[in-house]
Amino acid sequence: MGRHDNDRLQGTLDLLVLKVLASRGRMHGYGITLQIQQISREELRVEEGSLYPALHRMAQDSLISAEWGTTENKRRARYYEITPAGLERLKQEEENWARLTSAVARFLQYA
Amino acid sequence: MPWWSKLVNLVRGERHVDELDEEMEFHIAMRAEERRGAGLSEKEALEAARREFGNPALQRERARDADILQWLDTCLQDLRFAARSSAKSPGLTAVVVLSLALGIGANTALFTITNAMLLRTLPVARPQQLYALQLDENDTATNPIWEDFRDHQDLFSSAFAWSTESFDTSEGGAVSPVRGAYASGAVFRTLGLQPALGRAFDEAADHPGSGSDAAIALLGYDYWQRAFGGDASALGRTLRLDGKPFRIVGVAPAGFTGIEVGERFDVLVPLASEPYLRGPESMLKHGAYWWLVVAGRLKEGVPLAQAQSRLQALGTGVMERTHHPEWKPQILRNYLGRQFSLVSMARGLNYAGTELRKPVLILNAVVILVLLIACANVANLLLARSAARGREISVRFALGASRARIARQLLTESLLLAFAGGALGLVIAPPVARLLLRAAATRREELFLDLHPDPAVLAFTTCVALLCGLLFGAAPAWHSARVEPQTGLRAASGASGDRRGGLRAALVAFQVALSLVLVIGAGLFLSTLRNLTHTDLGFQPADVLLVDVDLSRSGIADAARAAFHQELLARFRALPGVEAAGASLVTPLAGNTWQATMRVESGAGQPVSIHVHYNGITPGYFHTLGTPLLAGRDISTGDHSNSALVAVVNETFARRALAGLPGGRAYSPAAALGLRFRKEFRASFSAPAVEKVVEVVGVARDAKYRTIRGAVPPTVYMGIAQEPQGSAGLSYELRTRMDLSAAAQMIRAAVAEANPRASYTLRTFDSQARDATRPERLVAAFSSVFGGLALLLAAIGLYGVLSFSVAQRRGEIGIRVAMGATPGHIRRWVVRRSLATVAAGAAGGLGLAAWSTALVRSMLYGIQPGDPLVYTAGLAILLAISALAAYLPARRATRLDPVQALRQE
């Protein structure tokens, strides 16, 4: 199935999720939300719920894997982990992102 | 997302949503906990968490949509696109859909027949529980066997006996036949059927008080519609069958047409009414006639093996109680040794299916080949189009479409075309099926099959269309997905066509091979038919009319029948335009036989037993039919009941009898004269047989008896005047040049003058001979039509490939012409290109034909599967058609203007 290349925002969310999972390892949805908010110093505030369809889709696309586990305080939670395909995709997305931002930066500098 | 996980989603949707819900609840709970930590009350914390989370139902929908909608959406997109691009080239689309419709339609038609004839179960309750009795290889029983079995059996929950019969509803004169059947009372109960109207008979009908009590009738549903307009007032009305009144008590349910595939009853009467109908010639009363099919419903839970062994035990008792007092020890031993077994009746009795199984299977194979050829053709056309669309596809690649996406798009287009073809095929299938059925039916034996498309047929057509779509869609899809975007953009024509050209040539070679197989097959079947129709029958059926006269309800006494026949024959002979006339008990090729064993006296020692086909004739029979007498004399008017018994025999009989004599005498027609043999005679239908000596006074040329294919059997002809028993039915042969309709009036008048209540049927001998070659005619006609179709498709394929290659090589041709190539050179160059393809296909086709025609050896007559003439002719036809298909592109190539061609390059 084709990727949603045209959907920038969604693409960005994917990128953030993949990045978090790649650098922090196994994590549940709430944890991912916290991480994104912390690292971006509350700059990137997406509607929290919209994370879940994205996680679901990425799991179906085998970019991440999901399984049920328990938290430190014994709650049942769904944990996500990045897959090799996800790592590959992350690399692409990072390059795309770098290209895009540098292009936009150049544009802002010289236009 | 892989498609299977989408399917999994669709199936397990609910559980999936539960997981998502739980996950989101966890999130909200965690967030609320955090807020509580920041000092909010429990309620406030939860509210805040929910607010931040957004609408969970919406997210849930989004998660699901991600799975399904996207998938469906791309499907719809593909479909819309496919429809648009098909509409853009209406000519191509029409050719593709039409050739598919022909291929799929032919297959559907054949499947409809195969399904109705060989696969479908009877429309009764739980047909799998129904079994019929079989005695050795025979599926009929005598009435004593049926009654004894009925009264002693314990393996069926109920059982019935059935026999088909033709009744005459006229009051004399030309017969107005209806199809009937006798059935014992439990028939509807056993089959689990309810009448559509009125009542069915029950067991009480098996024991009627007096003769006419049994005279009740059930109408077949179709007959009720045809003859009574579906009017409920038919109940209680009187129907005359063979002149006897029957009261209509009910109508059978629609769809139930009897227990025999291809048969249909118009009227069903109780078995017990048979003596009432047939009077002194009742088979039920006589007891030694094998005419009843016995079937029943196996008791619930009884395994078949157990029922079989129980039946064996029962059978011995049945046979011991039912043998006929008249039988000699030899026959009796035979009788007692017969073994009962059960055969499934789930699909009904299937005589038509047994006879036509082979032709139907062959035609199935033929239409499958045609469909393959059509698919190859369509694949070829689509390849050509995808070449023309190379640019479009390259652009889509460049815009970021994946290979899989492009391949899927093309496959969607193929499937759309396939299903369009399939839908049209469903429309043309029923008329084709009906046409086939009409071709398979003979004038006397109609085949009744329910050809309405049922779910099985629809499923079949859908599968075939799907398979076709994948088959012919695979090549273009695979190819386009491998196009290098750069090459595609650089040159829409030229180099990129080459690989595709190879594939297209291979497809054409495949078509050529298959169509050669079909052409050779058609050639063999046509030769078979020609051999059968030109075979020496031993008589001349042309210009002979057959009149079957039946006196059984004329009121003429047994003793007066011989005189009546004599008078009627004289009347026929006196008709203007009738050159000769005779009569016989059996007419050749009518499909029935009279067989007996004769014991030829050898002077010393044991007599020679010869199993013969017998026929009773009148003087003039041989002359009318054009069968020459080789020695001796014909039966004459001087041979009557009081003179010495004499017979005319055929060459085969004479040869067999002479060879069997002590020392083995050499055959010559004259040597057989004076031979004496013993034959059994009966004074009446039920009288004991008496052996009498008959002398051979004439030898006739061999003539076919029942079938054209079979060898001529030893045949004995005797005068019917010397038969002690007057026959109710007799067939008259009239040699006349008048046509049927002109003769019909005179014949009607002649019969009515002799006796207004005598009934008769009229037909030409030619039509009877034609009926005898029904399966061969069917196969020959349809394999020729489909062979022609296959050739046409192959020619279109070849033409398409060559045209395409000429168009692609305009530049090259232009250069050649500019360098001085003559039109002849160019033509040869193009034709050479086609030659390799055709030769490869032809070679493959010859091999395939050699293998496959050997499988139909038993369907052939007078020709070997590897007949060199047929193969040569098939090859010649194929080459001629190929040359024609190559000629047009070649001519176009020679007319190319080099300047223009080069400029375009």
UniProtKB/TrEMBL annotation, chain A:
Domain Transcription regulator PadR N-terminal as annotated: residue spans: 17-91
Alphabetical list of Pfam families matching this protein: PadR
Signal peptide: none
Protein name: PadR family transcriptional regulator
From TrEMBL, chain B:
One Pfam match: FtsX
Positions of transmembrane segments: 361-383, 415-437, 457-481, 502-526, 778-802, 835-856, 868-888
Keywords, alphabetical: Cell membrane, Membrane, Transmembrane, Transmembrane helix
Limits of the MacB-like periplasmic core domain: 93-313, 511-747
Residue span, ABC3 transporter permease C-terminal domain: 365-485, 785-898
Primary localization: membrane
GO cellular component, one term: plasma membrane
Signal peptide: none
InterPro entries: ABC3_permease_C (IPR003838), ADOP (IPR017800), MacB_PCD (IPR025857), Macrolide_Exporter_MacB (IPR050250), Perm_prefix_1 (IPR047928)
Topology class, membrane: Multi-pass membrane protein
GO molecular function (one): transmembrane transporter activity
Compartments where located: Cell membrane
PANTHER family: ABC TRANSPORTER PERMEASE YTRF, MEMBRANE COMPONENT OF TRANSPORTER-RELATED
Family affiliation: Belongs to the ABC-4 integral membrane protein family.
Protein name, UniProt field: ABC transporter permease
Organism: Paludibaculum fermentans
